[in-house]
Amino acid sequence: xxxxxxxxxxxxxxxxHRQRVLVACICLVVVIIWITTSLRSHDYAEPPAxxxxxxxxxxxxxxxxxxxxxxxxxxxxxxxxxxxLDRIVDMAKEWxxxxxxxxxxxxxxxxxxxxxxxxTHPPLRDVGVHLLYYNKTRYPVNNLRNLAxxxxxxxxxxxxxxxxxxxxxxxxxxxxxxxxxxxxxxFILPAFNSDLATEDMPRxxxxxxxxxxxxxxxxxxxxxxxxxxxxxxYRKWYFTDKPFQIYYRWVYEPFLVYNxxxxxxxxTIFKGYGFDKNTWVYSLAILGWEFFVVPDAFxxxxxxxxxxxxxxxxxxxxxxxxxxxxEVIPNVKRENGRSPQQSAFGEPVYTQGExxxxxxxxxxxx
Length: 366
What we know:
The protein is of the alpha/beta class.
C-alpha cells in the first residue's frame, strides 16, 4: 500500500508545483506589463498643468510658405492637429484670403500627414503653415495660437478654431469693418453649430436663420456653457444690419477679429482643456478693449470626434485649469492696478484668508 500512496503523493506534489509555477509565471507577466506601462507612462504621460508652464517647444516657421499673395488687412489664424487638416482645406476654400495655421506635430506620422495634405490639396498651399512639436505636455493650445498670430502677415486677425466654417464673403466684409477701427476694438463673430455637410453649410445670414428655424443649427455651446456665448446677444443679431456694442462679463469667450499688434499673447500656462481663451478675453476687458458684434458675418462649427486633449478626462482637466484661473485672474488685476478682492466683470472673488483651495473648487466660475 505504501508505493501507490507515495506515487499518489508525488503526483499531487508535481501537480501543485506546476500550479505554483503557473501562478508565478502569470504574476511575472503581470509585473512586466505593469512595469512596461509605467515606463511608457513616465515617458509620455502629460504632467499636471502647473508643472508645464515653462516648457519650450521646437518650432518650424513657414513649413509651407503661401504660393499666393493675398491683399487685405485680416488673416484667419488657427491651430490644428494633422487629423483635422481637411477642415483647414475647407476653410481656405471659403475664406479666399491670408491664413496662418499652427500645426501640432506629435510624431513622424503627423509630419507625413502634413506633407500628404500639402501635396494633394492645392488650397492648403496658399496657407502659411507653421509647426510646433510635442514636448511631453498636454495639447499646448495657447502656444499654438500665439505661433499662428505671430506669423500672420496682416495687422488684424480672426481667431477661429479649426472646425469652424466662415460665412460667405467674410474676408471682404471684415476688411471693410476693420479699415477705420481703433486698435482696441474687437469684433465678435456670432458662432453656431451644424451637422450639415460642407456643401450645405449656411453661408448667408438668411441661410443660418432658416437652419435655426428648421433645427439644423444651434448657438455654439448653448447647452455646454451658456454664459460662454450668451453675451453676444443673438436675438438682437438676428434682426439688425448694424454693428452693436456688447459689454463683457466673466467666462464669455467669443471668437474675435482683433488687432494683433495691440493685444497681449494668450497665456501659455494653460495646456489641455479649459479656460485657455476665457482668461485671455478677460485680460482684453481689463485693458479697456471694446467689443462689437458684426451683423453680416458668422461662423459655423462642424462636428468632429471629441479630442481628449492628450491627458486625463476633460472634467479633470477643467478643474486643474480652474486652479490656474485662480492664479491668473488676480495677477491680471494686479498688473493693471485693480484689487484682486474686487470683481471687475462678475467673476468670483475671494479674501486672502479663503485661499486658492476654495477658489479652485467654486462652480461659480462656470
